[in-house]
UniProtKB/TrEMBL annotation:
SUPFAM superfamilies in UniProt: Periplasmic binding protein-like II
Protein name: ABC transporter substrate-binding protein
Entry's family note: Belongs to the bacterial solute-binding protein 5 family.
Keywords (A to Z) from UniProt: Signal
Assigned GO CC terms: ATP-binding cassette (ABC) transporter complex; outer membrane-bounded periplasmic space
Organism: Antarcticimicrobium luteum
Solute-binding protein family domain: residues covered: 81-453
Main location: periplasm
Keyword Signal: yes
PROSITE patterns, per database record: SBP_BACTERIAL_5
GO molecular function: peptide transmembrane transporter activity
Subcellular localization: Periplasm
Length: 547
């Protein structure tokens, strides 16, 4: 967690005056307050399905206010597992996990959650299609064509096997007991249950929906808030679900409003139109904190910013060119210039939390900034200055455009000809009908094991391979070790080798920096930001809860 006080923010970034206005949440009708949250983007796919909305912005609106799993992530703590819709769990063997369900949990339609809902939430009809419980083979969306409007989208079976490569099925033992059966051993089964995607839906609501999209825009879940209104690309409103098993929610409504421009989010916050403004860049912090009655909640999070390479591009097909690109970037200078030192360059695609399970590779670092080495590698590659496209979104990530422009200049200094191509959405970024080169991305730790993000995002069913941007035979074989071995030493050796492959020998990506989130808000709300994209509006994180 970053400790940033008002004086530090003002001295770093300057300040702008702001007037005292009526708090937006006091305008709410009824006994409980309502809040409005200005965000850069609500969702990417315009659905609220956790299997489909695998994004940073999706995490913010989906968890923990709407969707819940059998095991929950401790959003306000160490991000580890805590009881959720299951009260207890234990291993029967290396392939089998048994869980006892919490009794009396109600869905938003009044149904009680039972083992039937849990089993269906992990069924072929819901997510896996006809895929088999065996890892190692990449599943492409073109292999699946929905035959009816009720069928799941073509991308879901691949996402399902990304998250659960070897899940053979969920057995209903009795009304409140289930067993997860894997086809192979997996030391991370418990972790997979609190990662995004493994949340529980209401079977009846799914069956009654006329189409998948009808269900996915207003899913029936067990969370403290339900979907009252959903206007894709405009707004999303949740309303309190008073039969929530965890107690009466503290807010009447939560409305997320899509406000793409940073200045509009900040001005709306200071004028009282919004109660929260998300995704603030560091240079806006001082202005918000200097305005009377406002503060900025800030935290580094379990997410790293990276740039990904498309090896189908004729220039990037040569690993020497990709290696040169990784050594051309002065990451420390970028962190200092764009982030005021409020984040850091991590030890490659690793998180400090890996130390708790002795899976952190000591001594590993991001590729060194070495322009001379980069020039030498380009000379070996016989690079002639051919252009390399760099597809860029308009600040989907904080400081994305500025960061991209700085990197292009750094690449230019060693002789690389990288050309920015501004795109409007992720569909255009990933479009394979035209020549792809470099793109921005981020990688999250969701299981507290190196399997995320390395295997989940860069392994056989990671999206970088599903989109045919990069693949590596040895890394895919090592992914199988990470997914199926119970030998700690063998797994640690495997992840060390995977770092060497993906960051040094045959780069799939280049590391940039650890991500950080900055959220402007009214000080009197007494709300705290989680060390994640998610925003927790449950009772324990809201001091005005009236019980």
């Amino acid at each position: 967690m970053l400790n940033l006080n008002r004086r530090q923010a003002i001295s770093l970034f300057g300040a702008t005056a702001g007037g005292l206005v009526l708090p937006g949440y006091l305008r709410a009708q009824g006994a409980r307050p309502s809040v409005t949250v200005a965000v850069q983007k609500i969702t990417i796919n315009n659905t609220l399905d956790p299997w489909r909305e695998q994004s940073n912005v999706g995490e913010r609106v989906l968890y923990p206010n709407l969707w819940e799993g059998l095991i929950l992530r401790d959003w306000m703590g160490d991000q580890g597992p805590v009881p959720g819709l299951a009260t207890e769990w234990h291993r029967i063997d290396d392939k089998t996990l048994e869980l006892k369900l919490r009794k009396g949990v109600k869905f938003h339609n009044g149904d009680e959650m039972t083992a039937e809902d849990v089993a269906f939430s992990f069924s072929p009809e819901r997510v896996f299609g006809d895929t088999q419980p065996a890892g190692g083979q990449t599943i492409y969306s073109e292999n699946y064509t929905p035959e009816t409007a009720k069928d799941i989208p073509a991308s879901l079976p691949g996402v399902g096997r990304r998250k659960w490569p070897a899940l053979a099925g969920v057995e209903i033992v009795d009304r409140y007991t289930v067993r997860f059966h894997n086809a192979t051993p997996d030391v991370t089964m418990e972790g997979r249950l609190y990662a995004g995607g493994s949340q529980i839906l209401n079977r009846r609501a799914w069956d009654e929906a006329a189409t998948y999209n009808e269900w996915a825009t207003r899913p029936i879940t067990t969370g403290p808030y339900f979907v009252e209104d959903h206007r894709p690309d405009v707004s999303l409103t949740y309303r309190a679900f008073d039969d929530y098993w965890g107690g009466r929610p503290p807010l009447e409504r939560i409305t997320f409003v899509e406000v793409p421009e940073v200045s509009s989010r900040v001005n709306g916050l200071l004028s009282g139109e919004y109660d929260f403004a998300c995704d603030l860049p560091p240079d806006q912090i001082g202005g918000v904190m200097n305005a009377p009655g406002f503060e900025v909640q800030s935290s580094t999070i379990w997410n790293h910013r990276v740039s990904c390479f498309n090896t189908e591009h004729p220039v990037l097909a040569d690993p020497l060119v990709r290696r040169a690109m990784t050594h051309s970037i002065d990451r420390d200078a970028i962190v200092a210039a764009l982030w005021g030192g409020m984040t850091k360059v991590p030890a490659g695609l690793q998180f400090e939390s890996f130390r708790s399970s002795d899976m952190f590779i000591e001594g590993w670092t991001a590729p060194e900034y070495n322009p001379e080495l980069a020039r030498g590698l380009l000379k070996q590659a016989n690079y002639k200055g051919d252009p390399i496209p760099f597809r860029l979104l308009n600040n989907y990530y904080i400081n994305q455009v500025s960061n991209g422009q700085i990197m292009v200049e750094m690449w230019k200094q060693v002789g690389l000809n990288v050309e920015i191509e501004m795109k409007e959405n992720w569909g255009q970024i990933l479009d394979a009908s035209t020549t792809r080169g470099i793109r921005d991305w981020s990688a999250s730790n969701t299981i507290n094991d190196p399997i995320t993000p390395m295997v989940v995002q860069f392994g056989p069913n990671g999206s970088i391979q599903q989109y045919k941007e990069w693949t590596n035979v040895e890394l895919n074989e090592l992914s199988q070790v990470m997914e199926t071995s119970t030998d700690h030493a063998k797994r640690k050796k495997a992840i060390a080798r995977m770092l060497e492959i993906a960051e040094r020998e045959d780069p799939a990506y280049q590391m940039l920096h650890q991500n950080a989130v900055f959220t402007g808000m009214r000080s009197e709300l007494n709300w705290k930001a989680a060390p994640a994209f998610a925003m927790d509006f449950r009772g324990p994180n809201w001091a005005t809860n009236d019980g």
